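Progress report, Aim 2. The chain analyzed during this reporting quarter is listed below.
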Amino acid sequence: MRRSILAVALSAALSTALSTALATTPVAWAANDTAPAAAKDGAAPGSEAKAQPSASDLLFEQPQMKNTAPGSTLTYDYLRRSGIENGPYGPPLNDAIKLTVEPGANADSRNIRVQMFSGSNRIPAGPFTDMPGNPVLTLFLENHLKGLASLLEANPRYIKNAIRKALRDKATVTPTEISFKGKTVEGWRVEVKPFEGDQQSSRMRGFDTITYTFVTSPAVPGEIVSIQAHAAKPDGGELLQESLDYDQKDS
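Predicted structure tokens for the chain:
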């Protein structure tokens, strides 16, 4: 049986979700708990015969690190800014997450050391042993969850479960193309609006509009190309822009 990436994925324990550190205890961010989500019909990039993958499979079940050479470093540029005047997010944050990659116990896994942000922004995270998946995904999601739950004074479990359920039931997965090292490569785009129509939307201060977009490609080391969480005001102003982008200079 394929070892689930979630068995070794990063998460913050829900009881300490508002603390400054991101813990490394396993928590399921996958869209499904007991069985793989059914793949949607459609053609994968470059293949008419291959079924379109589910969001859960793309993000949480693939051995994303197998194409990353031991001894390399993956750098992800991080941005967070908010248009909420005097809001809890404070001034814009531009920083980086760096993963130092070493061999794992088998060909598809890696041992990974993490530098999550720098200076006074630094957040403890990792290290990870024998990781088949890319921990930057759960690093981003857990940090985002911590900030959003604090802002909304909401139960982190409710927010997390809403995102998980939406990835299972509402996410759209479409083929896309990415510019990588001067070439166009094939990948996937996952988009979901977890809180659209949510029964608690009236208490979400406009964040029921938040859209999550994930871009992946097997041609890119670590497979995670970008992650974005975006929420807008009714007048088009920005509530939150939080994004992570793979820095190709390290390739």
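The two ends are 32 Å apart (CA to CA). Residues 105 and 236 are 49 Å apart (CA to CA). These observations will guide the mutagenesis work planned for the next reporting period.
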